[in-house]
UniProtKB/TrEMBL annotation:
Residues 378-401 have a biased composition (Low complexity). The keyword Coiled coil applies. Residues 147-157 have a biased composition (Polar residues). Residues 396-481 form the SGS domain. It holds the Pfam family SGS. Keywords: Coiled coil. GO terms for molecular function: protein-folding chaperone binding. Residues 251-349 form the CS domain. InterPro entries: CS_dom (IPR007052), HSP20-like_chaperone (IPR008978), SGS_dom (IPR007699), Sgt1-like (IPR044563), TPR-like_helical_dom_sf (IPR011990). Residues 138-157, 195-249, 354-422 are annotated as: Disordered. This is SGS domain-containing protein.
Length: 481
């Protein structure tokens, strides 16, 4: 199979969010060429799998590869590389660095010179803390490609920002990239303003042009095994893949999703090709042990290996005898019966690789582990009826989503890889980050103008009716029954 085929399939796997499958395909493709598009795709896959160092390295290498090629797609790839750096730094809680990279992504999308000394990373106080605020980020749109000309009313300028109407600044072809970086900054700066003053996330440790990563050393191929001589036994072949214990625990952990009702906590653990007949699941009052689990990052693991076992420390106590589990080709589902119904868990829990000894001598698995009985091989579906909320007010979160249960309490905690090009997404982000007074102004102006104007200035709109201002070439007419 050619490098191009590997690369095409790897990019396709990233588009389908099959991160584990994408990385080996892109690894093979990149053995032949440092194509920026392949590097950026692999950076995204590594980021989703929490391999942040690898993701950052790929994003930085993609920036240099695009700059050196100087092709028609180079600027767009450099814009994407800066954006990807920003997302990774956000994950690493380096929020000031994340905002700098997001701003550089915007400047490139505006058509600004690549080598321009814009001074973004110099905006610090005497203590070296970043001084750009959330309000600065929201107001920073004068360079947006296609924005209305200076002097346009505040309400129409915001609408122009949402609809990319070009009435002043020339379009560059990167309008959607600019909007994505602009919207992402609201999340970065929103996190930054909530940090304590001594948090390292306030410091700038990044440069506009990233240091070029060194090429990875080529692996020396193992010597060909010698043929067995007469009278000597042939040695077994070496196992394929890295040796046990060589993969960090953080890379072995499973991606998890959950939702809860008054009675249960449903947890989805995303792991492929689990053999239901071989899987052992043991429920304790505050943890679950599971083995053997195939690992995408370490496919060599076997039953009995430490890496094949996970211990899930739970966010609350459960009734082991009433908890259940099931297996599908892509995940393991746990339905945990709360020991105290109506109590809301802050989180489902956390995963540790291997077995974790219990500090409570009374913490024993159920006398007949549910994982080992045939009648419990199939758990009820996630849409099973749940009782209504109790007086405690604990919410119930049923779902019919094809993508599985969601933790709706964390819906706002996005990681920047949703599609922010949608106008509704932008409006939600703008509204969520506004002050109560700004939100009041937005609602009043939007409703009174029939959706044609949007203002964040309450002083401007509180004592007047906001008139309907249709786009150029459109005539506003009153609706008649």
């Amino acid at each position: 199979m050619s490098a191009t085929t590997f690369g095409h399939r790897g990019v396709e796997a990233v588009q389908n969010k099959d991160w584990e499958a994408a990385i080996p395909l892109l690894d093979k493709a990149l053995e032949s060429s440092n194509a920026p598009s392949w590097l950026l795709a692999r950076a995204q896959a590594h980021q989703q799998l929490k391999n942040y160092d690898a993701a950052l390295r790929d994003a930085e290498l993609a920036y240099h590869a695009a700059a050196e090629r100087g092709s028609g797609n180079s600027r767009k790839q450099m814009i994407e590389a800066q954006y990807r750096r920003s997302v990774v730094y956000h994950k690493l809680e380096r929020y000031a660095d994340a905002d700098c990279c997001a701003k550089w992504s915007m400047l490139l999308a505006e058509g600004r010179p690549v080598g321009e000394d814009d001074g973004v990373q110099k905006k610090v106080d005497e203590n070296g803390n970043y001084i750009v605020t959330y309000e600065d980020g929201v107001a920073d749109h004068k360079g947006q490609p296609g924005q209305p000309a200076q002097g346009t009313s505040n309400s129409n300028r915001v609408l122009g920002l949402m609809n990319s109407q070009s009435a002043g600044t020339a379009k560059t072809g990167f309008e959607s990239d600019w909007k994505r970086a602009y919207t992402w900054r609201s999340q970065v700066l929103g996190r930054l303003k909530s940090l304590p003053e001594d948090h390292p996330g306030w410091k700038i440790n990044v440069t506009k042009v990233p240091p070029k990563p060194q090429a990875k050393p080529q692996k020396t191929p193992d010597p060909e095994p010698e043929s067995a001589s007469d009278g000597e036994e042939e040695k077994p072949a070496k196992p394929v893949g890295p040796a046990p214990g060589s993969v960090p625990d953080e890379q072995l952990k499973l991606r998890a999703d959950f939702y809860q009702s008054n009675q249960n906590v449903s947890v989805s653990l995303f792991v492929k090709d689990v053999k239901k007949e071989d899987l052992s699941v043991k429920f304790f009052k505050n943890k679950v042990e599971m083995s053997p689990l195939p690992r995408a990052a370490a496919p060599y693991v076997k039953p009995g290996d430490r890496e094949a076992t996970s211990t899930f420390t739970l966010g609350g106590d459960i009734d082991p005898l009433k908890s259940r589990w099931s297996v599908t080709p892509r995940k393991v589902e746990l339905v945990l019966q709360k020991a105290t119904p109506g109590v809301k868990w802050a989180t489902w829990g956390s995963e540790e690789i291997g077995r974790v000894a219990s500090e409570d001598a009374g913490d024993q698995p159920s006398a007949t582990p549910l994982a080992e009985t045939a009648e419990n091989k199939t758990a009820p579906t996630a849409s099973a009826a749940a009782p209504p909320p109790t007086a405690t007010g604990a919410p119930a979160y049923p779902t019919s989503s094809r993508s599985g249960p969601k933790n709706w309490d964390k819906l706002g905690d996005t990681e920047g890889d949703d599609d922010p090009q949608d106008v509704n997404y932008f409006f939600k982000q703008l509204y969520k980050g506004a002050t109560p007074e700004q939100q009041r102004a937005m609602m009043k102006s939007f409703i009174e103008s029939n959706g044609t104007a949007l203002s964040t200035d309450w002083e401007d709109v509180k004592n007047r009716k906001v008139e309907t201002v249709p786009p150029e070439g459109v005539e506003a007419k009153k609706w008649e029954a």
